[in-house]
Design brief:
Blueprint: E1 2-7, H1 13-23, E2 28-35, H2 41-48, E3 53-55, H3 58-62, H4 66-74, E4 77-80, H5 89-94, E5 99-103, H6 117-126, E6 131-138, E7 148-155, H7 162-187
Parallel strand pairs: 1-2, 1-4, 2-3, 4-5
Antiparallel strand pairs: 5-6, 6-7
Helix pairs in contact: 1-7, 6-7
The protein binds glycinamide ribonucleotide.
Residues 8, 10-15, 81-82, 102-104, 116-117, 120, 170, 173 line the site of glycinamide ribonucleotide.
């Protein structure tokens, strides 16, 4: 059984769906949720989901090898579910094609630095897009530029607010993210 470590900075609704999904399939198990935000709701959710949730300091991520060493012990795959820090290259090098991110838009549009959460949905609205969606991709050195694994679209009507767009997109994330992670693991022969 493969081990997944999730990184999350915020509410963790995706983390929750992924944990629950893998509690009922044998492909993988979420061993750990790591957050750079000690007040993140995701850490509270971990308690009710019987999953270990840990806060780490930036220095343990960027300067020392504390987080890297923990990942080497605990992870076969790393999943970014609403994680806002850039992954240091030493971690990317240690886990080639094993780090999966979800982005709440159709990359390459609306990606890059500063494009996260509601910022993305507001930009989509401002550009009068008629569709948005989700992109699940491998993580490389540049924000939102790794190879794309999966995309799914949703249509946007002219009266959709950024909040409504966010809800439509999040629904797709919850529906597809766990399954796509499982697919990646299975395609790598478990
Ligand atoms: C999700 O919509 C995810 O796609 C987005 O943050 C949200 C986290 O929600 N990630 C990014 O914008 C990364 N650039 P959650 O904490 O409820 O899972």
């Amino acid at each position: 059984m493969k081990r997944i470590v999730i990184f999350a900075s915020g509410s963790g609704s995706n983390a929750e769906k992924i944990i629950q999904y893998f509690q009922s399939t044998k492909t993988a198990v979420v061993t750990q949720v790591l957050s750079n935000n000690e007040h993140a709701k995701v850490l509270k959710k971990c308690k009710t989901l019987n999953t270990s949730g840990l806060y780490f300091e930036k220095a343990d991520f960027f300067t020392s090898d504390v987080v890297l060493n923990l990942l080497k012990k605990e992870a076969d795959y790393i999943v970014l579910a609403g994680f806002l820090l850039k992954i240091p290259s030493k971690i990317i090098e240690a886990f080639p094609n094993k780090i999966i991110n979800i982005h709440p838009a159709l990359l390459p549009k609306f990606g890059g630095k500063g494009m996260y959460g509601m910022h993305v949905h507001r930009a989509v609205k401002e550009q009068k897009e008629t569709e948005s969606g989700i992109t699940i991709h491998f993580v490389n050195e540049n924000y939102d530029e790794g190879s794309i694994i999966f995309q799914k679209k949703t249509s946007i009507s002219t009266d959709d607010t950024p909040e409504i767009i966010a809800k439509k997109v999040l629904k797709l994330e919850h529906l597809y993210f766990p399954k796509v992670i499982e697919q990646v693991i299975l395609e790598n022969h478990g």
